[in-house]
Amino acid sequence: MASMLMNSLRTCPVNSSRALQFATWALSASAPLQAQAKSKKTLSKPGVRNVVLVEGVRTPFLQAGTTYADLMAHDLARGALQGLLNRTAFPKEAVDYIVYGTVIQEVKTSNVAREAALGAGFSDKTPAHTVTMACISSNQAMTTAVGLVASGQCDAVVAGGVEFMSDVPIRHSRKMRKMMLSLNRARTLGARLSLLGSLRLSHLVPELPAVSEFSTAEMMGHSADRLAAAFGISRLDQDEFALRSHVLAKKAQDEGLLTDIVDFKVPGKDIVSKDNGIRPSTMEQMSKLKPAFIKPHGTVTAANSSYLTDGASAVLIMSEEKALAMGYKPKAYLRDFVYVSQDPKDQLLLGPTYAIPKVLERSGLTLADIDAFEFHEAFAGQVLANLTAMESDWFAQNCMGRKAKVGAPPMEKFNLWGGSLSLGHPFAATGCRLVTMVAHRLKKEGGQYGLVAACAAGGQGHAMLVEACPQ
């Protein structure tokens, strides 16, 4: 597949001038382009409950190993849940269900949704479960909530996600685990001494958490590097897009647009109130970094990749009638969504390219109908590869079985307040950030439809359509 793309996409690569336009536009823009209020059709369906996003919050996203370093995942999740309750003044007992996502699971709190909910003061009568779907785990949590509300099972569901990369589980080696389990079953002192006598230094070597795809044994960064090469995405393209993300995030932060953040008090330390990974650099500084994965000729570096992040998010999802009856003004309708899966070897990060045409067709919309786009930025090369694939008739016809390309989002509507490259990417918390951010952008910019898309490990992907609620 990769070799096919290398040979066949030479007629439609992203050239560096386009990426340069991204950075130049970001650096020169004094205000985001305001979408004109439109009178498009609504995606409301007769006989189907309208499901709404009432509110969405998140803790500040911090680089792993910084201020949150001594906490646990459930601490951050509890903080997001408490922040949601404080902001909405929603009665805890009125929450029918809680769904949370996480990827790197803490073994002591295997159902982190339940532990965080109890810690946040929710009723012990409120059911809670945890889901995992790599980087789209909180997307899965939200769509689970949508299903519960749309079906009439629930009126109000809290969904969210948390990731804590400052402290990940590290196991003993398998040989050591087997010996320890045998020791636990041994009945006599002799049996125990015999087992201890078999101990070797090699048994003490720990097993670090997997940072590669289980099915391919390849790190995601390697996949991103190969994908960028296949689509003709240069190092310059990637660095300029990453710079764009940081510049726009800093601008949004300075202008007070990141209103989904709730303060978080770290015990024994100051209150944290903003993301700490937003750091606009210069092209000169970024160009000095060495390849992080494929050495020495790779193009993916620490500067054009998302960084390890700690953080949690939470959203309140309700039926429209219940929200209005309780006096709330919903932010947005959560309309349609799709999940997709591809080959995890050569198409690991192309989820948005496959998901977006499907969700648009299901809703009878085109790309031109979308006023605000929020894509997950795992790697700059991944984003640019998806944009190139979406603009390629060849890829649509030969890889997707479609007659023609769907087209790429216009950059004046794309990730205008920064993205995962700059804001941070706590794996399971990013989905809620994307949906909340697109809802806020629709209100700020006067748009009607927003589109969220993300790739995920395992070759999976997600896309969701969000519609602004009448003001």
Keywords:
Peroxisomal Thiolase, Chain A, domain 1; single chain; 471 residues; mitochondrion inner membrane; alpha+beta; acetyl-CoA C-myristoyltransferase activity; endoplasmic reticulum; 16 helices
Structural class: alpha+beta
Point out poorly predicted stretches: 6-37
What is the residue-averaged pLDDT? 92
- CATH structural fold name of the domain at 2-29 and 214-256 and 335-466: Peroxisomal Thiolase, Chain A, domain 1
Q: Strand-and-helix sequence, N→C?
A: HHEEHEHEHEHHHHEEHEHEHEHHHHEE
Sheet with most strands: 10 strands, mixed
User: Per the principal axes of the C-alpha atoms, what is the gross shape?
Assistant: globular
Strand content: 15-25%
Distance between the termini: 48 Å
The tally of helices reads: 16
The CATH architecture of the domain at 2-29 and 214-256 and 335-466 can be named as 3-Layer(aba) Sandwich
> What's the number of extended β-strand segments?
12
Helix content: 25-40%
Q: Mind telling me the CATH superfamily name of the domain at 2-29 and 214-256 and 335-466? A: Thiolase/Chalcone synthase
Compute the gyration radius: what is it?
23 Å
Output the CATH class name of the domain at 2-29 and 214-256 and 335-466.
Alpha Beta
Describe the structure in your own words.
The chain is built from 16 helices and twelve strands. A hairpin with a 5-residue loop joins strand 6 and strand 7 (271-272). With 471 residues, the chain is an alpha+beta fold. Strands 1, 2, 3, 4, 5, 8, 9, 10, 11 and 12 form a ten-stranded mixed sheet that branches. Helix 1 (2-8) packs parallel to helix 8, helix 2 packs parallel to helix 9 (235-254) and helix 8 (220-230) crosses helix 13. The chain has a domain at 2-29 and 214-256 and 335-466: Thiolase/Chalcone synthase (Peroxisomal Thiolase, Chain A, domain 1, 3-Layer(aba) Sandwich).
